[in-house]
User: Fold this.
Amino acid sequence: MTPPAPSNSDVVVVGGGHNGLAAAAYLGRAGYSVTVLEQAPAVGGAAVSAQAFEGIDARLSRYSYLVSLMPRSIREDLGLDISLIRRRYSSYTPVPGTDRGLLIDAEDAERTKASFEAIGAGDDYMRWLDFYRDTQVIAASLFPTMTEPMMTKAEFRRLLDLASPGRNLYGRFIETPIVTLVNETFENDIVRGVVLTDALIGTFPDGDDDSAMRACFLYHVIGGGTGDWDVPTGGMGSVSSALERAAREAGATIVTGAHVTSIGDDSVVNFSQDGQQFSTQARLVISGASRRTVYELAGKSFPERDIEGAQVKVNLMLTRLPQLADTTVTAEEAFGGTFHINESGTQLASAIAQAQSGNIPDVIPCEIYCHTLSDRSILGPELQNTEAHTLTVFALNVPHSLIADRDPDEVREDLQARVLRSLNSVLAEPIEDCVMQDASGKPCIETKTTIDLENALGLPGGNIFHQPLTLPYIPDEVTINTPATKWGVNSGLPHILLAGASAVRGGGVSALGGHNAAMAALEILREG
Ligand SMILES: Cc1cc2nc3c(=O)[nH]c(=O)nc-3n(C[C@H](O)[C@H](O)[C@H](O)COP(=O)(O)OP(=O)(O)OC[C@H]3O[C@@H](n4cnc5c(N)ncnc54)[C@H](O)[C@@H]3O)c2cc1C
Assistant:
């Protein structure tokens, strides 16, 4: 039974995603009264686990699945019991139309080198090492600053220039269009694609402006100071549960099923629950919901143009892993890291061009991850002793605008069929032969389009980061005159801070938005 919301609090947090919970935990620990209002029956937002299939005892990470960007310092500050599993295989990428692929084995440099040579990319191997040595330097110098006040652009540039003098890290990784950087660095089409996908997760080029792609790439290579993407033990729900526990232990009141309907200029927050209307007064409002939602709730017109996501997520429950066309790797190796499908540089460019001209790509590029190869604790005891596995497909280059006006059920079915066709193109047998059936005999396949994400989570246009990502510095034209600007949590409305993914460094499962909003809030509340 969810507690009633108090009539007033120091801080009201709108939205109990993992970032809203992190903000609540920090502020509660600092002695402030905090109320979190979450519209869904449970907290966690896009960082949740769910029993997705009727009668199947498996709790899948329903939306987000890997953790990279959550700093150890936040886990320690809040005493979060979160364990992360490092994966041995970074990625496997079949070469389309052949029975060979590129395997990146983080523990076997010789095998990785041989794999580059086997697909005709031997010359790119040393370039690959150099390139990722550079991203490691960026990660090591930049990531620790994510929990500090924002840098100006000049400070940011200086940090990267000093990190590796002579390597032009800022010019190459921050200012150069990402496709140009990748094409100038690598020759092989598969290698180019593997590198480029990090710029395309949840992102789509906006005409000639690729700044969100560059930011997306940067955030994909700096996490934890190494750029590793780890599997959360127990699934993504365990991350949000740990934050929920921390917030409650810090004294926060968490109210679920509470849909915020408006935020007044006087920081009165109105919400509906079980068909009734309530109000609660805050000294300060923090939003874990998107920036666009903040504007809607405040009754202001959103100053930017439409926001959209561009991905399809497909969750599957398998009786066993499928056989691959490539017999030189095992399915456990190929699915042990990120399995790229139809993601060569040429295929990505072609899919982007098709989508930009208004068509869903013929061949949808996608990538797959298998949670249960790293962590079987998400399966019930009976399934643990079988060959059952979960599989998560994240498909790219399907902008929301291409599907927004279509019937949600019909478009979901269409995209699911296209994604499975793309997957099947690199397998030795149809994936359908390996799919488990639920208690009603239905195939265990769950597909989430951008329409579904907007409806279920309030993600604008299904954008997984709430809005296009931006680089982690304060632009020259912005004056740093408020705690909100200083910490990158400025909503644009004076009485509301952003804690969620819309905060400058808030995208992904990182708790950074929550941490940074709490730091800004502390400065404001202490000033009185
Ligand atoms: C399919 C998918 C895959 C992803 N994969 C990864 C991944 O592997 N790794 C990674 O790091 N990131 C991933 N991401 C991105 C990441 O999940 C999000 O950026 C992150 O979870 C955002 O957290 P948040 O707390 O800022 O916001 P959200 O999780 O969006 O939470 C916002 C909360 O606000 C609530 N809310 C909204 N409006 C209202 C209202 N009016 N009243 C009350 N409550 C409201 C929502 O219900 C929600 O609970 C993925 C996202 C998706 C969708």
In short: The pocket of flavin-adenine dinucleotide is lined by residues 14-20, 37-40, 45-47, 63-66, 69, 259-260, 288-289, 293, 313, 453, 457-459, 464-465, 500-501, 506-509, 513 (CB under 6 Å).
